[in-house]
Amino acid sequence: MYAWRGYAGTHRLEDNPNQITLSAFDKGDVIGTVTLGVDSPVGILADEVFKDHIDEFRARGAKVCEISKLAFDPTVRSKFALGSLFHILYIYAHHIYQCTDAFIEINPRHRRYYEHMLGFRTQSGVRINPRVDAPAHLLWLSLDFMGAEIERLGGVHDDAGTERSLYPYFFSKREEAGIADRLLSIG
User: Fold this and answer.
1) CATH classification of 14-186 is 3.40.630.30, yes or no?
2) Under a CB-based contact definition with an 8 Å cutoff, are residues 36 and 89 in contact?
3) Full pLDDT tens readout for the chain, 187 residues
4) Are 91 and 154 in contact, with CB atoms under 8 Å apart?
5) Whether this model's pTM surpasses 0.85
6) For 2-106, where are the alpha helices, taking DSSP H only?
């Protein structure tokens, strides 16, 4: 997906103990992937371009993580699949790794989507990301905010009213607790 869009780089998944890649499937076919990177002594990928912004959060005691390598089949228009993928990502970040703040590097043309659909906030002007040789903004999301939105809207897709975010397509908090318990039990 990234090469098709003209981004440079190999876009390969690397064996990294501080990253986990999740996939969404439909009838045996991969329809989406996303990677969660958890902060470590070597940092996160976004440090290469936006370390000054991310260090401000670290200095306040935040445990940071990043979302990267999101790719979703453009022919699949499933808010359920995308919501589920992001919710599992949240469960890993919040419940498994105890992260407090998430970052994502976004091409400027995708910024409004992440702001409106998930509540991300822009943290920087445009900078060139050398990994993909493309412009990027750094966006931030409080995982406390995400948890509150899941509490408020998760699992209400049939009765979402005028809500335009992706949160009604997340699991309910009860379902989240069950998934988190199962993931924690398998280590």
Assistant:
1) yes
2) yes
3) 434 444 445 545 567 889 999 999 989 999 999 999 999 999 999 999 999 999 999 999 999 999 999 999 988 888 999 999 999 999 999 999 999 999 999 999 999 999 999 999 999 999 999 998 999 999 999 999 999 999 999 999 888 888 999 999 999 999 999 999 999 999 7
4) no
5) yes
6) 47-59, 79-90
